[in-house]
Design brief:
The protein is of the alpha/beta class. The protein has 11 helices and 8 strands. It has a 6-stranded mixed β-sheet with strand order 3-4-5-6-8-7, with helices on one face. Strand 5, helix 3 and strand 6 form a beta-alpha-beta unit. The longest helix is centred in the last third of the chain and has 55 residues. It is elongated and about 85 Å long.
Amino acid sequence: MKEVKTGKIAVNREYKSTMFCMIFRDREKLLELYNAVNGSSYSDSESLEVVTLENAIYMNMKNDMAFLVDMHLNLYEHQSTFNPNMPLRDLLYVAREYQKLVYNTTVYTSVLLKIPTPRFIVFYNGREIRPGKEVLRLSDAYFCREDDPDLELKVTVLNINEGNNRELLEQCRTLKEYMQYVTCVRRYHTVSGMELEEAVDKAVTECIENGILSDFLRRNRAEAMSISIFEYNEAEEMEKIRKVEYSVGEADGFRRGIQQGIQQGIQAVITCLLEAGLSEQVIVEKLSKNFELTEEEAEACLKNTGKGEAAGSL
């Protein structure tokens, strides 16, 4: 396994878990989060059945947690980088979940198979400014948009950064304290300019002293620090990648715009020359001279007007 050295702590770059997953691996805390999201008041954590497919990875995509409550299949994901492809990711994942749930049962029976109702939630706490709540739809990715597509999947993205979804954070103390910890790390690292490892260490100490995730951080200090450093580095790397992708896309769009403009200009010139009654040979010569085209390229442009034969008959 690859490791990145950050001072005294070796961070496992292939570590699949996150602080969010570590914290809400506790059934009581996961049920607390579920109640806060749904406005329910379930108290028996044994009624919650975790069904996360630990080894189900498709194209390096893995769901954070999946669980059943009251015949609802809940897929929860935590993200520090906004991802517009979550509906597609959840579609691929939930199909595997249903495949697992109906294993040993034939889908060709004449009896209707009942399956849990799915709910897709993303908890977002990245540094990119996003709405407090937004709904991503699978149909947004379709080439051909339809008002009522045959296949739709909606993912609700909840922004849990400071100033967003206050009621949710008040209803789920654990989620609120998790964000207080994240904010503390950012303050020390970004605002105070500390090295990341030192910032994480100070944030852990401060949170323990102030009763913020104190029990969890005392029990899991070393692992929590390693994961925090890994997550923070990963988020920064993703931000850099996004900036490069944007720059490349912007440059490509500019280049395509210029090419389209040149093509439109050539077509306009051809139209004028055709209307003037010039022969195909003369038009090709003028295109080659004025637009620095080869004879073959000029002939192709003329042919693309659909009037090549007309030019030859004039």
